[in-house]
UniProtKB/TrEMBL annotation:
Residues 483-504 are annotated as: Disordered. This is RING-type domain-containing protein. InterPro entries: Kinase-like_dom_sf, WD40/YVTN_repeat-like_dom_sf, WD40_PAC1, WD40_repeat_dom_sf, WD40_rpt, WDR86-like, Znf-RING_euk, Znf_RING. PROSITE patterns: WD_REPEATS_2, WD_REPEATS_REGION, ZF_RING_1, ZF_RING_2. It comes from Vigna angularis var. angularis. The lineage of its organism: Eukaryota, Viridiplantae, Streptophyta, Embryophyta, Tracheophyta. Residues 6-51 form the RING-type domain.
Length: 844
């Protein structure tokens, strides 16, 4: 038998450390926890079990509350007498516990990548024509004015007919989520390597030039690379009189200095577990101090060029492309590029392991080009038709030819350099020296024997380690919309109703559905038109959608097919507010600008006349009812233009009390956890106890100078959001101010909240969607996207997985979704707190 326990500390009740005390709502909490619960209002406390505000004797303390004798008797009878209870209090985040709905994105995933996302205005591109394979150029403008290169990483289009617009950050996160797990892991390795290794060109972060655009890796671009500086050096430093530098003119010394820098740059990659897979002169740049860095953007660009050529399975075309663009690829990587997509029957070619030794081959080719230029024949050491199968003999002959050229050009003094470069060209990567060995050889030639005490670079890299090859990795595959053939990741994508599903194995099914929906634009617009004036309110209940309007009517729509069923008539003034009351007899209640309150029955068949109606006291100086709310105690609350809130009895339509305190129109009301929240044009939110209608507190008084009139509020347990006339929202958690953010250009007229998801709409004709996330110490409002519309948004309601939007142009737009089979039928779709819109029928 499980013993009864305190809902706060989760300890079993006893008669010493955890005495159960009964609150007026009927729940029991241990005395020690009651003493530590925060009190926001005098003589009241929020029950931790049901979250209601209940009376609490602040002066006497919890000991004055009655004990729960029954719970205490059960606990003492079944608890071991010898056990000693240690009372430990559990501090839990009420924000997280109350919001168990799905988020737009995984908080853990967002936390991993958020610091790498650059602001939208952080980069200025030199041109709008982005390269197909090579990186594009740009300039970073935040804080510093630095040149950068942009390497496209991925691009997933949300669909041509999708009306939903992602926010900038949401689009970047979507692109990252759409990548394969291997691609994201590879990207993370590159980002971390750029931070830790000074010989790797720094990466500023990830950036997109706009929603629906590709995601780029923004890498610093140095003043010039080796190809720009030495590209015209046809014969290398010591290749001869035509363009080369003679040995006695310092050419060999200059080469050794550059060669050492190149070795250290490649070594930096290997220390991070990365293998370039191909190298060229353009991969190495000079930093501000004259050192040499490896540019990973250029490496990825080379890899994409190789993949494009290898996709055609033409060895000659690939070798020609490598020669023309000075791309040096080791034989084993070249084989892999050509045959990795072939069927199993073509897999009998000679293959060697790909690892750090592969970069040693490419490194040697770069050094040879700098040293002797184009002295070697163009087809030397490149793949030809005879390179299939066992070509070791012919390859050895090519290496011997290279050795003879080096011996002729360098002389006996630098034979060790020639020998180690020839060893680097061995067909078997296991027989090649390490990058450290090449670097040490060059260092020995630079440092005279009398300075040998300086020592060489003491770094060891295991030859058995293969590393992560960038050229053969996911990032070197072309972004899918630029590729002639589907990438390996695309071939693995699952299909949902014919649309790609960019979801990795192990993800939650709700994320799977939302990703498919967000990228597809799969819906048809449903436009509800019957009103003759601006829509002022929306409510859902009893299988119906209710809408009020300035045309003095309340319309009833079927939730099954959204067809118009009935019209409630009787108001003589504009209907300003609308609520649904789910009781034994479900009711629809509406209030108008003349002070009229109408009760409508919704039992079939629907009646033309109201069940009951009455009017509040009219005053020609004010404008009647502006807002409505109902409570479980059968009370109706009206917010009026006379600055008061009135409580009415639903049973006999009598006025229970009038609550005063606001200094202007009470524009919006909400009820939650036995508390009435009222927002006013005076810029404040007031809280009232529903037990005795006494005031509890006032929110927003300290920022009246900065805020305008409150147009709407929404409450979800511990969260309160107020929308203002200037397009700004303010958020409180447990009545403590947490954040303020501008969401719209103009007034926010309508708002709805479901869990962490907040929907807002107003004067700028947009419906914005954002996520409220954080903990007990901070709260962030993260924009997810928006829905542009053709009219001012005047009402928003999210209910039971559906989103309804009312407009000033008399129309209502609604959405429906089958969460199980993704059967989309209307325009605006919300799937597990993810939104999608389609623009197939926009005729508003």
């Amino acid at each position: 038998m499980e013993l009864p326990e305190c809902p706060v500390c989760l300890q079993s009740f006893d008669d010493r450390d955890a005495i159960p005390r009964v609150l007026s709502c009927g729940h029991s909490v241990c005395e020690a926890c009651l003493a530590e619960l925060p009190q926001r209002y005098p003589n009241t406390i929020r029950c931790p079990a049901c979250t209601q505000l209940v009376k609490y004797p602040s002066q006497q303390g919890p000991s004055s509350l009655p004990k729960n004798i029954d719970l205490l008797r059960i606990s003492l009878q079944h608890s071991p007498s010898s056990s000693s209870h240690s009372h430990k209090h559990n501090q839990r985040s009420t924000f997280n516990s109350c919001n168990d709905h799905s988020s737009f994105w995984s908080p853990e995933f967002y936390d991993v990548w958020k610091n790498w996302i650059l602001p939208l205005d952080a980069v200025l591109t030199d041109d709008h024509c982005l390269g197909r394979f090579s990186s594009s150029k740009g300039r970073v403008c935040f804080g510093v004015n630095r040149c950068v290169s942009l390497a496209p990483i991925v691009c997933f289009s949300p669909g041509d007919d999708s009306k939903f617009r992602f926010s900038y950050v949401a689009w970047v996160i979507k692109c990252l989520e759409g990548m394969s797990e291997a691609a994201r892991e590879e990207l993370a390795w590159i980002l971390e390597a750029s931070v830790r290794q000074r010989r790797v060109c720094g990466v500023f972060g990830l950036w997109s030039e706009g929603v629906e655009g590709p995601l780029y890796m923004v890498c610093e671009r140095q003043s010039g690379n080796l190809l720009d500086k030495f590209g015209e050096l046809g014969n290398g430093f010591v290749g001869g009189n035509e363009g080369g530098l003679e040995l006695d003119s310092g050419g060999i010394f200059y080469f050794l200095m550059i060669g050492r820098g190149i070795c250290e740059a490649v070594l930096s990659l290997h220390l991070e577990g990365l293998v370039a897979g191909c190298l060229g002169l353009s991969c190495f740049s000079f930093d501000e101090l004259g050192g040499i860095c490896v540019d990973l953007n250029e490496v990825l660009g080379m890899g994409r060029r190789l993949h494009a050529v290898s996709g055609k399975h033409e060895k000659e075309a690939m070798s020609k492309d490598c020669l023309e663009n000075e791309i040096f690829v080791s034989p084993e990587v070249l084989y892999e590029l050509l045959y990795m997509r072939r069927s199993a029957r073509d897999s009998g070619h000679l293959r060697y392991p790909i690892g750090y030794g592969s970069d040693v081959w490419s490194l040697a080719r770069v050094l040879l080009w700098l040293l002797i230029g184009n002295v070697l024949p163009r087809n030397t050491l490149e793949m030809n038709e005879e390179s299939d199968g066992d070509s070791t003999a012919s390859y050895v002959c090519c290496v011997e030819k290279v050795g003879s050229v080096l011996e002729d050009k360098l002389g006996s003094e630098y034979l060790s350099l020639g020998k180690i470069l020839c060893k680097c060209l061995d067909v078997n990567p296991v027989n090649r020296p390490d990058v450290v060995d090449v670097r040490n050889c060059i260092q020995d030639m630079l440092v005279k024997p009398q300075f040998e005490f300086l020592g060489n670079l003491e770094v060891t890299i295991s030859k058995d380690s293969t590393g992560r090859c960038l050229v053969l990795g996911e990032l070197s595959l072309l972004p899918k919309e630029w590729s002639d053939e589907p990438s390996e990741h695309e071939l693995r994508e699952k299909q949902i109703d014919g649309h790609p599903n960019f979801v990795q194995d192990g993800q939650d099914k709700s994320d799977e559905y939302s990703a498919a929906g967000l990228s597809g634009g799969l819906t048809e617009l449903k436009d509800l038109r019957s009103h003759l004036d601006c829509v002022s309110g929306l409510a859902v209940g009893g299988g119906y959608l209710f809408s009020s309007s300035f045309d003095k009517t309340v319309r009833v729509w079927s939730l099954q097919d959204l067809s118009h069923l009935h019209t409630f008539r009787g108001h003589e003034n504009k209907v300003m507010a609308l609520v649904y009351l789910d009781e034994e007899e479900p009711l629809c209640i509406s209030g108008d600008s003349g002070g009229g309150i109408f009760i409508w029955g919704i039992a079939a068949p629907l009646r033309q006349d109201p069940l009951r109606k009455w009017n509040e006291n009219k005053d020609w100086r004010f404008s009647g009812i502006h807002s409505l709310a109902v409570s479980k105690n059968h009370s109706i609350y009206t917010g009026s233009g006379d600055r008061t809130i009135k409580a009415w009895s639903l049973k006999d339509e009598t006025l229970i009390c009038t609550m005063t305190g606001h200094r202007s129109v009470v524009s919006t009301l909400a009820v939650c956890d036995e508390v009435l929240y009222s927002g006013s044009w005076d810029g404040t939110v007031r809280l009232w106890s529903l037990n005795d209608h006494c005031p509890l507190t006032v929110l927003g008084e300290d920022t009246l100078a900065d805020m305008r009139s409150i147009m709407a509020i929404t409450v979800d347990r511990h969260l309160l959001v107020a929308a203002h006339e200037n397009g700004c929202i303010k958020v409180w958690r447990n009545d403590v101010f947490m954040n303020s953010k501008t969401l719209h250009n103009g007034s926010i007229f309508a708002m709805s909240m479901q869990g962490k998801c907040l929907y807002t709409g107003g004067w700028d004709k947009n419906v914005n969607i954002q996520e409220l996330s954080g903990d007990e110490f901070e709260l962030d409002v993260k924009p997810y996207g928006s829905i542009p519309n053709s009219s001012v948004v005047t009402a928003i309601l999210y209910s039971q997985g559906k989103l309804y939007i009312g407009y000033a142009d008399k129309s209502i737009k609604a959405d429906m979704i089958n969460r199980e089979i993704l059967s989309f039928s209307l325009s605006i779709i919300w799937q597990h707190d993810f939104l999608l819109c389609s623009e197939r029928k926009v005729n508003v």
